[in-house]
Amino acid sequence: MSVVTIRRGFLETAAGQLHYRRCGHGDAFVLLMTLPLNTTMFLPLMRVLGESHDCIAVDLMGYGDSDRRQRPWTCQDHAEALLEGLAALGIDRLHLLGGHFTGQVAIEAALLAPERIRTLFIDGAVGWSLEEGRELARNWTMPPWYVSASYLAEHWDYVQALFRRLDPEFELRAGNMDVIAELGLAYVTAPLGGAEGQSMFDYDLVARARLLEKTPTVLIGSPTDTLWSQHEKVLAAIPRGREYRFETINPLYQFDRPDRAVEYASMLRSFLHCVKP
C-alpha cells in the first residue's frame, strides 16, 4: 500500500475562503464534514480512498479553518460557495458525500448543478417536515454560549456524549486524544463562525430529495446514527435511490478506529462501479 500525502489549501469564493484537505489521484471525490466538526474526521478515510480517487475534504464556510460567515447562510448559500470554490480549483465533475446538515448542502449542490455531481452520497438525513423540525428546534438543548472557562468544560462533556451516541464503543484514552481533541475544539468554537441562517431543523429534505431525478443517490445509514429513525422516510423520497446499511456502528463516526476506514471506502467504491463515466 502506497503512502498517501494529505495536503491543505483554500478554495477561493466571492464570500471568502473554504479550507480543504486533499490527497490521492483519479476522479474527484468531495467530502463534506459533519457539522459542527471539521475535516479531521476524514483523515483515515482519505488515506484509503485516496488510493483510487482525488479526495477533497471541505470545511463549510464558518466551520473548521474556513472563513467566518459575514451574514446568515442557507443550505443553498453553502452549496453555491462549494461549487464556486471547486470550479476555481478546476474541479467540474465530482462525487459528493455529505451527512446530517451537510447532507442537505450536498442535495442543494446536486440540484443546482446536476451535470457536475456524478454520484451523491448522503450519510444520515432528516425526514421531518418543516413544522416538525421547527418544533424540535424549540426544544433543542445545548450548553449555552457565555464568557466563562466553565463553558469549555460543559461543551467538552456534551461533545463526548455526542461521540458516544454515534459510537457506543467510544472511549477517551491517550491514544485517541489528538483527533478527539481537535474535533471537540471544532465543535466548541462553532458558534464563532457567524450566524447560520438555516439549520437542519428548517429544511424540508424530503421535498428537496424528491427532485433528485438526475443524480444517482445513495443513502447511508446505521442503527447507531442519531437520525436512523428517519432513514426509511428519506429513502422513499429519493427517485431510484439506493441505500447501504451498516449493521453495527458506522465506520465514519469511529474517529479513533482508522482500520474501519477500509470498510467505508469499499462501500463507496462498490456504488461507484455502477455509475456511468
What labels describe this entry?
alpha/beta, 8 strands, eight-stranded mixed beta sheet, 277 residues, Rossmann fold, 9 helices
Shape: globular
CATH class category: Alpha Beta
Radius of gyration: 18 Å
Q: Class by helix and strand content?
A: alpha/beta
Biggest beta sheet summary: 8 strands, mixed
- Taking the alpha carbons of the first and last residues, their distance comes to 26 Å
SSE run: EEEHEHEHEHHHHEHEH
**Helix proportion range:** 25-40%
Question: What would your notes on this structure say?
Answer:
This protein has 277 residues and is α/β, with parallel strands linked by helices. The protein has helices at residues 43-49, 75-88, 101-112, 130-138, 149-166, 177-189, 205-209, 231-237, 261-272, and strands at 7-13, 16-24, 28-32, 54-58, 94-98, 117-123, 217-221, 242-245. It has an eight-stranded mixed sheet, with helices on both faces. The radius of gyration is 18 Å and the shape is globular. The protein has a single domain (7-272), classed as Rossmann fold (3-Layer(aba) Sandwich). Helix content is 35%, strand content 17%. It is built from nine helices and eight strands. Helix 1 (43-49) packs across helix 9 and helix 2 packs across helix 3.
List strands and helices in order, with pairings.
Layout: E1 7-13, E2 16-24, E3 28-32, H1 43-49, E4 54-58, H2 75-88, E5 94-98, H3 101-112, E6 117-123, H4 130-138, H5 149-166, H6 177-189, H7 205-209, E7 217-221, H8 231-237, E8 242-245, H9 261-272
Parallel strand pairs: 3-4, 3-5, 5-6, 6-7, 7-8
Antiparallel strand pairs: 1-2, 2-4
Helix pairs in contact: 1-9, 2-3, 5-6
